[in-house]
Structures are given as structure tokens and as C-alpha cells.
Amino acid sequence: MDHLGYRKKMGTLGPSTNTIVQPDFDDLRPVGVTNHYSRIAIPNNPVNDNESFLKLVDNINQATVEAVDVLLSCEMDYLVMGMSAATFWNGRQGASDYLDKMKERAQVGVSCGSFATEAALNVYKAKRIAFLSPYFEVANAQVRRFYQDCGFTVVRDICLQRPSPVQIAHSTDEICRKTILELDGDDVDAIVQVGTNLSMIRLAAAAELFLGKPVIAINTATYWHALRAVGIQDKKAGFGHLMEHH
Predict the structure, then answer these.
(1) Which of 61, 14, 55, 10 is nearest to 169 (CA)?
(2) How far, in whole angstroms, is CA 44 from its chain's centroid?
(3) Considering the entire predicted model, what is its pTM?
(4) Are residues 125 and 209 part of one domain?
(5) What is the DSSP letter of 236?
(6) Which structural domain, as residue segments, surrounds residue 203?
(7) Domain containing 189 — which CATH number?
(8) Contacting residues for 203 by C-beta, under 8 A, at least 6 apart
(9) How confident is the model at residue 193 (pLDDT cuts 50, 70, 90)?
(10) To the nearest whole number, what is the mean pLDDT of the chain?
């Protein structure tokens, strides 16, 4: 039995440009669970249009398998994927095929952002949703398609079009708060934030209090999903209704 991870050892991964998901996952970690992070090695190339964003996704896809392989040697119990765009690609069926490939490679169960946010939305029986991302429109279209395949109506979505992978993590609370308010309305049951390098686990929790509806941060949902998948039911305050009550 692992001395610190005596409940579970979580393999976690994210792009090498991502400085948010590792500390976010650590903040969500209960006692007796340890996170073991592997970086998906990619360049910090400028992103200024759909074409360059697609190149970013391709870079991530090519390096993800190697990052998973690095984790095998620590004998992880479960894999938590801290990268999200690729997990929404090609509709729900395409995302399911991708998840199956990751499970086969990791040789353990896997949680990823697309299916974790779907599960979180289903907890609240949300039907009409809005979402924000740091992406460009080509990726928002894939996220929209995934949620529509899951049976949700996407009322609105906003892509922040951040200029590089690293710059995603520089997005301020002010930017995200204004975007949440633009997305909200009486026609929306819940708001979702995707893009794991966007820091929103605390802001989303605060937004729930003043909007009176679920605001789901992808890093919170993904780690919550992983904990529940391995049978850990610990609740944690300060990160929204999902972590505190479900």
C-alpha cells in the first residue's frame, strides 16, 4: 500500500503549457489520494485562428499517448485527463472511441472533461445550457456537437480566443465573470466552462451563489467524476455544489 496514496493513486496529465490543471487537481484532492502528473509535451505556438488551433489540438493528440505511458510505471489506480478539447471531438461517439483508446493505453479507468461535465449536468437534470471556452470557433463547434449529441440544447456559447496555450492561464477573473454574465439568462439551466488551463474552480463556485444555478468548471467536474468512479465519496467545501453535495 502506498504510504501517502493509501486510498488511490491518480495518474493525471495535461499539456506542458498548462499551469492550471495540476494545482487545481491538487486543491481538489482528499487525504489519502495522491496525484501523479505527466506533461503532454507541446510547443507554446501562437494561436490566432481556427487553423492554428487545430494544429494545437493535433500537437496534443500526438503527444498524449507518450504522457500516458510515462504514468504506467507508477502503477496508478486511475487516470484523470487534464486536457479537454480532444475529448469533445467528433461528437459523442467519437469522444467515446477516444476514451476507449485512452483506457486501453492506460490499463485503468479514465475520466475526461467531456463525459465528466455531461455527468455533472445530468446530476442537475439540466437541459438547456451555455458554455464558455478559451478556444476558437472550430473547437466550440465540436463542444457544441458533443453536448447536443448528449441531448442538451446549447443556447449560447462564447470562445475567448486566447492567443497562445500559455496565455489561456493568464485569463483573469474579470474576463471570466463578464463572460458568465453574458451567457446567463432565464433560458439557461446551467453554465459550463471548458478548457482545463482556464482557472475557474473557485469563480464557478462563487457564480453559483449569485446566479442561483449550476456553474460547472471542467477541472472540478473531471476530478469529482474520477473520485466517484473509484468509490471515494468525500465532499469538499469551497468548490461549488457538485463537490459539496454530490
Answers:
(1) 14
(2) 20
(3) 0.97
(4) yes
(5) -
(6) 121-218
(7) 3.40.50.12500
(8) 173, 176, 177, 180, 217
(9) very high
(10) 97
